[in-house]
Amino acid sequence: MGAEARKSTGKPTALAGREIASLSAVSHVTVASPGSVVFDLEGVEVHYGAFCAVRGVTLKILEKEITAFIGPSGCGKTTVLRCLNRLNDLISGARVAGGITYRGSDLYGAGVAVTEVRRRIGMVFQKPNPFPTNIFDNIAYGPRINGTRSHGALEAIVEKSLRSAALWDEVKDRLRESALGISGGQQQRMCIARALAVEPEVVLMDEPCSALDPIATARIEDLMRELKRSYTIVIVTHNMQQAARVSDRTAFFTTDRADESRTGYLVECGKTDTIFSNPADERTESYISGRFG
Amino acid sequence: MMRVAHGHPEIACATERTDLRARAGLREAKDAMATVMFGAAVVVVAVPLALVVWALIERGAHVAFESFPAFFTQEIPVVSRRPGPGMGPAILGTLLVTGGGTLIAVPLGILGAVYLNEYGGVSRFARAVRFTAMVMTGVPSIVMGLFVYIGWTVHFGFSAFGGALALACLMVPVVIGSTEQMLRLVPEALREAAYALGATKSRVIVTVVLPAALPGIVSGSLLAVARAAGETAPLLFAVGAATSFNIDFLGGANTALPVQIFDNATSVFVGAQDRAWGAAFTLVLVTFLVTLGARFFALRSALQR
Lengths: 293, 305
What we know:
The structure holds two protein chains of two kinds.
Chain A: H1 2-6, E1 11-13, E2 29-31, E3 37-48, E4 51-62, E5 66-70, H2 77-84, E6 94-102, E7 105-106, H3 114-120, E8 121-124, H4 135-145, H5 151-164, H6 168-171, H7 184-196, E9 202-206, H8 214-227, E10 232-236, H9 240-246, E11 249-255, E12 264-271, H10 272-277, H11 282-288
Parallel strand pairs in A: 4-12, 5-10, 5-11, 8-9, 9-10
Antiparallel strand pairs in A: 1-2, 3-4, 3-6, 6-7, 11-12
Helix pairs in contact in A: 4-5, 4-7, 5-7
Chain B: H1 9-12, H2 26-65, H3 70-73, H4 88-120, H5 124-137, H6 141-156, H7 160-185, H8 188-195, H9 201-229, H10 233-238, H11 257-265, H12 270-304
Helix pairs in contact in B: 2-12, 4-7, 4-9, 4-11, 5-7, 6-7, 7-9, 8-9, 9-12, 11-12
């Protein structure tokens, strides 16, 4: 049904014989035009056991845009992000209420293959998490588990992914060396390359620069602007300048200190320019101007 | 503390201690005492170990290496009064019994630990299994020997396989325990990285979790193997004490180095006692070589990754 719903805005094309259209596997993929809705969240609420981590999240994430989630610690940004590729499923007791659709099809619907969701919606984590193996095998991990066996094909994918992540020139002679031996910034770009190697449609980034110095951060930000041409990006960040620098749209989450339950919620979501210059909500304004505690 | 630019700094910092040297007295005394105590503890631990190794080399090495390689290849004298080699059947028996036990226990133990850590979690069944394994590590080896004796040997007679079963019963809980610890140490971030690329759970376990835990799993398993290789009691019941070579894993009495050490050391004849020393030296040597080899392979596979 996902393919049907999108046919009006984009043209279906076959992608290299792979059948990856709807999340439950139909035979087309939709190449949607910029500005079409990728994720549509409607009244999303996430519970961890009895604790409600975040509620009232209604927002849209648009094709080939960078959407930033900002807000104080514990407001549920990362929780919402991890719902988008169903990584919260790994946490026992996690429960998602409300509607999340991905290109029109229900992300949490029956028959959705979680592995397919995660292949198409890649993720980069807060701390670089290379596998304890060499650089080549790190990048080739995703393609391998998705069935690419031939060494030539893997080599091509590794080179392409590393080039997209602006890391190729730095590591091309060290592909067989341990991924733990490169710098933190390089490791994070390698993790981005690893995510890109499975040709995702969306890249989720969970505070990808919080463990990096300003130079490495600048490189990752340049990379994000570059990747925006081909991918839809959602980034969680504590750094408001970063959100202002790279994102097209910004969603501001917060939590009420008076509220004992510490449940986070979405305050507003809009164009980054508007959010940072003329926010609709007073709470957003006090947060971005630094008056928020 | 405010400093006066052109005044007397001594006065300005009157209450600050500028001397960075440690205050003499109590802390240094404590440091010295702790150093002495830790040093003494190391000596206390190391001395008996060194004495054991020394006794083995002094009294066992010449027996084992006299007219090499007779001691390692010849059969055990039927008349124990007679001096001279060898221990060949016992070496073969130890390799068969311990190797067989390892082949049964290590895969089972690793699979059990994977279940406990990756699937069972805190479920009632998993907790029961974990508790049972913990209790089993405390079961005396002779009890395991009796268990195998009534469960296997009584029906099928002595065999290397019976000994392997007994040793496997001893090893499984140890392997489960150490492997689960190692799996628990694998960072969640690595699992998430694999899941986020679309890997299934079984895939994540096989391609990420187990390789990351491999060196620890090998260490834990080796510990269990080395302990089992030295077990005597369960083998007395299950394996017997043959004096000739028996290559048949499944049938017929066999023997093992610990059993021969026990038999020969309790003999009144000097020749037999010497053979016991030689067998003891050989057992330590074999265990050492196996451990070294396994570590080498584990290290190499760890480096390749």
